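Hi support team,

I've been running sequence recovery on a batch of backbones for a student project. Most finish fine, but this one hangs at about 90% for roughly twenty minutes before it completes. I'm not sure whether the input is malformed or the queue is just slow. I've pasted the structure tokens below so you can try to reproduce it. Let me know if you need the job ID as well.

Thanks,
M.K.
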């Protein structure tokens, strides 16, 4: 079955098509008749949107997203616009205030007004598509946003999970603007392990592949159900497939017919705090010290609405302050703290969309020159065989004498940002002789093996992440890899080795062997030690050793995390190099006891513990051991697992339930025709009544990626629905 867009349809023609299909016409004001767009749903429920223009395609893209999960779209824009408290109540005011320090609706409206015509058309189509969905689905009741306006798209212009703004501590912000002491320094830090959101990306050059075509692995590790899988096509050169963050009109991680890209969270320092010296003048105005000068402190009013327990709305007004570095976000003794970060919504939105139309590496680099990406590394591959690793393009120039991991003295002009680094000054890899490039949220100094950038050539602030177990894992796999196919790339992405235990278990064996004869631990731990000693350090759903190792590793982590922080070492390094024999053996005893208590035996298959469960469409899941769930064989990336499943217990559960990790996985080959396989967590729809709510979970857990229907002839025989958006069924 091949679908071609017809010549622009008249209103009469659209009316005829809608009536023939049994649709009711929308009320006046929703311009479905002017939009030349059709949506095809494949047999996984994935929307393939085809528009006459890019704007038509965006209209259909947003309509399809809203069909799949409107609550997540609205939630993302409540967060982006600083309006969460209108649903969650007064406690959320600080989240909203933090957002509104940077996201000013009036400023966004002004930027929308001066946007280039092509981008303005896309923003208008974005709003039209969401509003058409609401108009044609009167049973859907938004919590707050009943009408989307085009300028709102600028509030959420970069697709990362958790933007730069969210790194500002809420407790400190609240303490400052309520003029109360901050408890931040008085509280012991939370040293329990928190699963990182990050990602894996791999690009392989033709020299490394069987068929001489570049390959790309797209493997974001995010909170589950964070993005929608879509294909969006127009007659203006748009033809892109991949994962779009709910509510955004661009594919964030994906590929077009000739090029593909994968983003990973970066360890670059692009956010800095400045200690500001403040004085009050005789007239009562505030000033801050900038070298030999005193400058006036910026001041403005922000009014926020919040829902009261009664359900009625109330407002609260804040007077907020700023210096030339940025907004004031806290206090350091008797001084104030300002923060500097990227705030370029117009450029960011342009870069996010335009890169989806880049046909090759040169085109992608031209888009990157907009320099509105502050937090993401990029792995790239194209049909011409080019591959690359790109560092975030927004990296402020700073004096490397200063330690920007801590607040610096704002009085000293030398600490101020001095523009942004040119792309040529950033660590990057283009067509390395090694034939591969990768990133696992680790440093860039191993990105292409021997052809990686050299750390000594760059300022310290280019990376603060360091190496991680996944990075070491991929170096070992990619160094010898030759003749790789799409299937082989999938096997690399799901390699079951857990490298962290390769070093930890021998240390445990040494501690056990050193126990004196007659020590009670020798007999009590003999069988658990035998199980770990004979284990191949690979995860599987059937493996009892995986369960014991994970429980032991978590217990050891809890025991030494505080000591690692004091020693300024990563917990991984401390567990490996400095943990005492008593802690190693005590953690194993603790793990055995916990398994015995929770499951009746310490010999438990990992798949009986580690589960996927999706009971409803709520943004925050509620888990229940008595309800159906599905075994997942891979583990947290805490142990170096490339396929990541961040799971833990929840109130009332003994089993572990995952909420983050592998979310969208795709392998892509750029041959004469692009070829790809993919899988998404759970399913495409957020509606529990949909057949596509959980229909991908078995493939997800078994790494059985499904074929992507990129071309119309591939869709043939796999069409579930074909319809015009913006009309009522």
């Amino acid at each position: 079955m091949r679908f071609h867009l017809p010549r622009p349809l008249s209103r009469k023609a659209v009316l005829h098509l809608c009536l023939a299909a049994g649709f009711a016409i929308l009320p006046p004001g929703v311009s479905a008749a002017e939009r030349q767009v059709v949506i095809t749903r494949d047999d996984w429920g994935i929307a393939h949107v085809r528009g006459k223009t890019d704007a038509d395609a965006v209209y259909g893209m947003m309509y399809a997203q809203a069909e799949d999960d409107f609550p997540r779209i609205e939630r993302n824009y409540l967060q982006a616009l600083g309006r969460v408290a209108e649903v969650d109540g007064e406690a959320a005011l600080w989240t909203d205030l933090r957002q509104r320090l940077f996201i000013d609706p009036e400023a966004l409206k002004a930027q929308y007004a001066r946007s280039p015509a092509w981008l303005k058309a896309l923003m208008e189509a974005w709003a039209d598509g969401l509003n058409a969905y609401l108009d044609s689905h009167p049973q859907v009741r938004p919590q707050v946003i009943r009408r989307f306006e085009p300028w709102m798209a600028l509030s959420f212009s970069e697709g990362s999970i958790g933007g730069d703004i969210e790194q500002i501590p809420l407790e400190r912000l609240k303490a400052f603007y309520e003029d109360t002491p901050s408890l931040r320094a008085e509280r012991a830090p939370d040293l329990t392990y928190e699963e990182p959101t990050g990602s894996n990306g791999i690009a392989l050059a033709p020299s490394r592949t069987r068929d001489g075509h570049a390959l790309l692995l797209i493997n974001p590790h995010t909170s589950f159900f964070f993005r929608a899988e879509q294909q969006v096509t127009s007659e203006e050169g748009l033809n892109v497939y991949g994962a779009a963050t709910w509510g955004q009109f661009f594919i964030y991680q994906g590929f077009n017919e000739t090029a593909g890209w994968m983003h990973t969270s970066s360890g670059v320092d692009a956010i800095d705090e400045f200690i500001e010296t403040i004085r009050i003048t005789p007239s009562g105005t505030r000033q801050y010290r900038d070298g030999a000068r005193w400058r006036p402190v910026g001041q403005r009013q922000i009014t926020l609405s919040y829902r009261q327990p009664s359900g009625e709305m109330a407002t609260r007004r804040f007077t907020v302050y700023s210096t030339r570095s940025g907004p004031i976000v806290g206090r350091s003794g008797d001084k104030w703290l300002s923060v500097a970060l990227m705030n370029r919504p117009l450029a960011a939105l342009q870069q996010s969309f335009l890169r989806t139309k880049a046909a090759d590496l040169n085109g992608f680099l031209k888009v990157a020159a907009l320099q509105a990406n502050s937090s993401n590394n990029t792995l790239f591959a194209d049909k011409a065989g080019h591959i690359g690793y790109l560092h975030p393009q927004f990296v402020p120039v700073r004096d490397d004498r200063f330690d920007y991991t801590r607040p610096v003295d704002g009085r000293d002009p030398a600490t101020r940002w001095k523009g942004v680094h040119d792309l040529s000054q950033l660590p990057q890899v283009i067509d390395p002789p090694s034939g591969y490039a990768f990133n696992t949220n680790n440093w860039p100094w191993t990105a292409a093996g021997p052809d990686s950038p050299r750390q000594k050539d760059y300022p310290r602030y280019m990376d603060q992440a360091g190496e991680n177990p996944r990075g070491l894992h991929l170096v070992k796999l990619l160094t010898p890899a030759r003749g790789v196919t799409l299937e082989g790339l999938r096997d690399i992405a799901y390699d079951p080795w857990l490298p962290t235990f390769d070093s930890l278990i021998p240390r445990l064996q040494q501690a056990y062997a050193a126990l004196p004869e007659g020590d009670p631990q020798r007999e009590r731990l003999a069988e658990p030690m035998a199980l770990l000693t004979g284990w191949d350090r690979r995860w599987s759903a059937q493996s009892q050793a995986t369960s014991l190792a994970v429980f032991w590793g978590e217990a050891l982590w809890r025991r030494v995390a505080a000591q690692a922080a004091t020693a300024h070492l990563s917990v991984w390094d401390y567990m490996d190099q400095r943990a005492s024999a008593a802690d190693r053996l005590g953690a194993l005893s603790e793990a055995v006891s916990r398994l015995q208590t929770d499951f009746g035996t310490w010999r438990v298959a990992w798949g009986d513990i580690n589960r996927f469960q999706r009971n409803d469409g709520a943004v925050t899941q509620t888990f229940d051991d008595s309800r159906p769930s599905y075994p997942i064989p891979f583990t947290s990336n805490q142990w170096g697992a490339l396929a990541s499943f961040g799971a833990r217990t929840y109130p009332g559960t003994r089993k572990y339930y995952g909420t983050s990790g592998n979310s969208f996985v795709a392998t892509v080959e750029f041959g004469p025709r692009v070829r790809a396989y993919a899988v998404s967590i759970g399913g495409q729809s957020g509606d529990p009544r949909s057949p596509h709510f959980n229909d991908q979970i078995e493939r997800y857990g078994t790494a059985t990626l499904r074929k992507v229907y990129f071309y119309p002839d591939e869709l043939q025989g796999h069409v579930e629905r074909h319809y015009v958006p913006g009309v009522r069924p």
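--
Follow-up from support: It reproduced on our side and the slowdown came from queue contention, not your input. Residues 459 and 485 are 38 Å apart (CA to CA). No action needed from you.
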